[in-house]
Amino acid sequence: MMNNKTEAPSPRVVIVGAGFAGLACARALGSTGARVTIVDRHNYHLFVPLLYQVATAALSPADIAEPIRKILRRHRNVDVLLGEVAGVDTANRSVCLADGERLDYDRLVLAPGSRYNYFAHPEWEAWAPGLKTIADARRLRSRLLCAFELAERERDPQRQRALLTTVIVGGGPTGVEMAGAIAELARHALVRDFRHVDPAAARVMLVEAGPRILAAFPEALAAFAHRRLERLGVEICCGLAVERIGADSVRIGGDEVAAGAVIWGAGIRAGCVGDWLGVPVDRAGRVRVDATLAVPDFADIFVLGDSARFDDPGTGNALPALAQVAHQQGQHLGRALRRQLSSEEPLPPFRFRDRGNTAIVGRNAAIFDFGRWQLKGRLAWLLWAIVHIYLLVGFEKRLLVAIQWLWRYLTYQRGARLISGGDDAAR
Amino acid sequence: MMNNKTEAPSPRVVIVGAGFAGLACARALGSTGARVTIVDRHNYHLFVPLLYQVATAALSPADIAEPIRKILRRHRNVDVLLGEVAGVDTANRSVCLADGERLDYDRLVLAPGSRYNYFAHPEWEAWAPGLKTIADARRLRSRLLCAFELAERERDPQRQRALLTTVIVGGGPTGVEMAGAIAELARHALVRDFRHVDPAAARVMLVEAGPRILAAFPEALAAFAHRRLERLGVEICCGLAVERIGADSVRIGGDEVAAGAVIWGAGIRAGCVGDWLGVPVDRAGRVRVDATLAVPDFADIFVLGDSARFDDPGTGNALPALAQVAHQQGQHLGRALRRQLSSEEPLPPFRFRDRGNTAIVGRNAAIFDFGRWQLKGRLAWLLWAIVHIYLLVGFEKRLLVAIQWLWRYLTYQRGARLISGGDDAAR
Lengths: 427, 427
Hints:
The structure is a homodimer.
Chain A: E1 12-16, H1 20-28, E2 35-40, E3 44-46, H2 51-55, E4 65-67, H3 68-71, E5 78-82, E6 85-89, E7 94-97, E8 102-104, E9 107-110, E10 114-116, H4 134-153, H5 157-163, E11 165-169, H6 173-189, E12 203-208, H7 219-231, E13 234-238, E14 242-245, E15 249-252, E16 255-258, E17 261-264, E18 268-270, H8 273-277, E19 287-288, E20 294-295, E21 298-303, E22 308-309, H9 323-342, E23 357-362, E24 365-369, E25 374-377, H10 378-391, H11 395-411
Parallel strand pairs in A: 1-2, 1-9, 2-5, 9-21, 11-12, 11-17, 12-13, 19-22
Antiparallel strand pairs in A: 3-4, 6-7, 7-8, 10-18, 14-15, 15-16, 20-21, 23-24, 24-25
């Protein structure tokens, strides 16, 4: 299975996870002397920042998912493997897959991403799904659209009102995006389609335990997003904790709210990297890495992205779970390992360069925080659209997403209103 | 819930099924005095003729599925209902839904479509899925793509070869389309993406029990399709019966063929209309209708599309299960019922106008049979593409499909190569 026979055997690099970090690392190591294997449980790289658009019927899954093989096809030294990692045998330097196969490595890059964190309430996951995979997005789309269908057939006004209520837990960028997108779905795309209910009367609640939404953004930008959400009809409840989530209701600050759909966006937790390596993790499940992104005591193992706890030497804070952090880490490590192939120089330290932080509320309403300067409103929204189309992999996806966004903008319609897959409540 | 209060109560028309027949009927009755309810188990109208492109990763489900509500939104007299029909109470003139609700009717239009017919072997369905729904297409896409992924990891050459073998049962238009599309997927889209297998060596077998493929087409056109399929590398086995289908092999004419995927396209069977009405059905499960598409003995019940047995007065043959037949029947009945609203004239007889029969093999290769004249090759393929884009509902879908086809044509790529939903064999 070796493609290159050189004098010294070329090092084997195993990368776990083909998200932003793993993929950037594999690309940087592409067409070098390293023998690279990238393992993922899906056959595609998912552009997670646009997943909320799949969940709200604006895009199709294939618009934001590109086969990993296709992205890396030019690099003959990179093997792509569809599989589930079960553990790491650090003593024998091999990765164990769920089906029993083992992958030996000289360098191991772990970037499996994160899941939602339900804190002390794992039982809430069944009623309040998060949004991390295509299956999640399809399930959520079905649940949202089904709620309107069931409401249309419901004769009891109280039950009808409950079905038309969506509660979003967590006022971070994910919660804000979902709240805005659901409000626009109801008020624009669905508004003329029903006979017995008024979708525009749908209730969208955004619940945040902290004092304000978008805590990671400057106050002025968060206040702008707050106003815009309210203008869309979203009810924002700050300073209120979710106390219980059930099949069809949520208890918020002592009040029971009957809801047709509950969506979780209140915090994430890193994957199993700590367990795999038998090392301690922080409160969010992340493994602490050193300046070169290596795990202390394991000079040949690196952790990237949402799974890594990297304290920024400038600010002293842990880097947030953002696509740009993961991408920069993957690219940095891939380039560093590539240089190490030719010269035995030590790995350089990673430096994060903040490209700006963004969140979108809806039509003509986004916010950008570039530190020194800030942007909000229509211009920020346009910039958001351009940046996200630019970041998509492949010309075809870019063209298709651009056309669909233009169409949505002109017509207020949504093109992917399918109730399919997941739990189809109507059957 | 009545929108119009007129002197004589306006008649209630219930339409079951929003396929080509049901939808055409509802549209023809739109914005009239009739109170129309259209019931479907899905919230979308599916353009089934392009479903094979979803199964072979060329299009996304949303490209060929449009919400029924959205199509009919202008017609305020039409109610759309997401639900499953459990039976018909002909004595009390009401349709019973699975959830217990009843829909009273004055006129009932039944167009629930068909399922695949496994003849005496219902157990084959688990191993050899047909292609009727989006869930079917997703499952098949996952199975086809997974077979390549598993083959890439397989070290045993015999087992690898088995995984790369696809058997398609039935040499009608569906079987021919699938065989051509799978051969092109392997030989073009996937060919450079794997390291340890050669997708171009994938084996695609088309098995037809009759003496030749495309029996419904003139011999010259079928022979052209046969040659083109062989040029794509498809092995065509005519005159051979499938004797057994198992989890990973098929017995064909006494030989056991190990296969990674088996696809069924060997005949369809109408839905439950016969059971609902308690009337006899023909061998394919169809209910015989009279010249006005009404069921004998039930002047107020009509059956359309794949569920109806309508013998063409011209040829004496039963009309085939084609989209154009269903569409024409739906439109005819809708218009006839509309005229009956104003004047009490009797329903006119239905006349089928043959718009031509078509099948596609692949790039630059389709066939058209217009009776008097025939078309094959690149021109037929272009006509096929234009006709199918024209027949799609909505400008956005047309634009998106046209762009994707152009992109596929120029690059040989497929845009929707997702393994997701259904039985993901790799997990």
